[in-house]
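Final report, results section. Input specification for complex C-07:
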Amino acid sequence: MTRELGKLLESIAIPVVALLVSLFLFSVFVSFSGANAFEVLGGIYRGAFGSWFSWQNTLVRAAPLMLTALCTALPARIGLIVIGGEGAMVIGGLFAALTGIYLDGLNPLLVISCMTLAGVITGGSWVAAMGALKHYRNVNETISSLLLNYIAIAILSFLVLGILRDPATLNNPSSYPIGEANMIGDIGDTSIHGGLLFGLAICIGLWFLMRRTIYGFAVDIVGGNIRAAQISGLPVGKLIILTCFLGGAAAGIAGVIEVAAVHGRANLSLNAGYGYAGILVAFLARHNPIAIIPVAILLGGIRASSGLLQRSFDLPDATTLVLQGIIFIVILASEALYGRIKWFQPKVTSNA
Amino acid sequence: MGKENINKVRRSVLKALAAAGAVSVLGGMGASSALAAISKVKMGFIYVGPRDDYGYNQSHFEGKTSVASMKWVKAVDEENVPETIEVVKTMESMINLDGVQVLFPTSFGYFDPHILKVAKKYPDVTFLHCGGLWDAKKHPKNVGSYFGYIDEPVYLSGVIAGHMSKTGKLGYIAAIPIPQVLRNINSFTLGARSVNPDITTNVVFTGGWANPVKEAEAANSMADQGIDVLTCHVDSPKVVVQTAEKRGIFSCGYHTNQSVLAPKGFLTGAEWNWSKVYSDYADMIKNGKKIPNLVRGGLKEGLVKSSPYGKAVTKKAKADAEVVRKKFMDGSMIVYKGPIKDNTGKTVIPAGKEYTQTDIWLESMNWLVEGVIGTTKG
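Structure output:
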């Protein structure tokens, strides 16, 4: 077995086994709460992937998670634990809405492009600021990103309840609409909005950037050993800020899509917890942008199946949260197995 | 662009075909199904928070449980559904998989754009939204809204609070300054000031419907300022009522009955009576009656009620509140009767002018009454 193949097999086999172990533990939990575990697992499958309707349901939920996961995954590659996806998404969505309201009436393609650009710049700068604080002032990026989430939400509610508020939105305060013409529609005849294409394209693009370019290699060096990177003359500060910017930009686009494909305006529903769910996706995908796609679909599927579990088995919504929690813990624990299972290791050959 | 245009054309052709299909189905059997009685009524309920939040979501869950106990009703529900595309999917799933005839998405944020979007796609399903204002000019015919004049029992809570407060300072912890919240704050204050004209109500807006940390902070700081009766308008009053009990001050509940959370200090509260609303709707569907697009009502219609009085409430306070309740029940009580000034000194309702509960003007309220300390800016 070559080294490459062994690594690939290992990185597929370990998560799959971990997933099976999680499902087993979850079945035990479900049995104790009085439901038939096989039926419940069948229900999760039907609700998530059992029909074309379920698939659409799953994919539409997976789309924002792909983008917010990148906000944790990219900085993690350079050694930072950033949990600011929620804030970047809120800020990106807010400024996208502002741009849309201001430019409404121009060519819709131009308006959507400018909205996306606004989301990229504001969401990106939001997280880049955390990278800069870390690099120049040694502020812990996990804490600053968490606290900046609250500030982002406060800015959103200040503007949406204040100067941006459309007086016609009485009991659900919202900004003025961006205009029907500027909305992103569904893909073909499905009920999946165009946000999924953004998610897929950006995950693949950033995978290429992180794994196949000199920039990505440099990021991995800084993430591996920052002292070594400094000694070898890499521009560590710039790399940190740029990587944080890219992560924040991805989350910002998630906000743009919420505004342009779902709500049509900015309101407090932008703060729906996708940023926090994205952290889970990033860790499960081991911060690999391409692995984020299947993990986001898996998690989207679990969330999509919650409705069916509640309605068919009378289980609380927390059931799927328990499943998510079990998967998270088992997968994190399985990280310890990498490089320890002999079968995947290449035979040591000496080329003396 | 070219490709997009083709897609658009294709989509509108498909839509036209689907519409034609729907029309032919209606022509074939629509007439009979609209009039004939239905043997099994299927209803779907959607909540934005947990079913057991001691608050707004629980009040709807209690209504659902009560209507589901009837043999000819099948009710399904889902909790913790965010106000995003997820509620769209939940509604479609209930329609396609459970075959519901009527949906009750209960959170304010579900209405525009989510309910309006799905309602256009499924013209045979009825969508009834809690709290929204249905507008015949703008909204689809298969959409409606229902809400109770909960400020009536809130006014009664105010009367009780006015009697029980020793410091003359009341506290109101509210989510965001929207008309329905402002109306409750104003009615509570007017109720209290009908007993003691010098009483004041401090208002804190937490900025969100479920912010337990800020709610606890606000409750504690109000207790520190000498406020001795707390009430709230957030999704779950649990934290506020429990904090008041811990600090040894009184509390008035909201949404559901919270007396078990504060056996000493709980006075009374304003509750929804959704089981009445939901069983009325179920009856209408069963008997093939036309469902009204706008349903409103207060104490008299049984849409809202007061929580049982707590131990601490004095006889005098109870007697006073019951007099007012009687006036609500016979329709002679008018809360918004001039002269009423707002808390900036401006006259908002001149002497001689009255707004009865059904007046839509009250549903766009954007001022706080004299005696409230706080601003509508949040």
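Chain A has a mean pLDDT of 92. The first helix of chain A runs from residue 3 to 32. This concludes the modelling results for the funded period.
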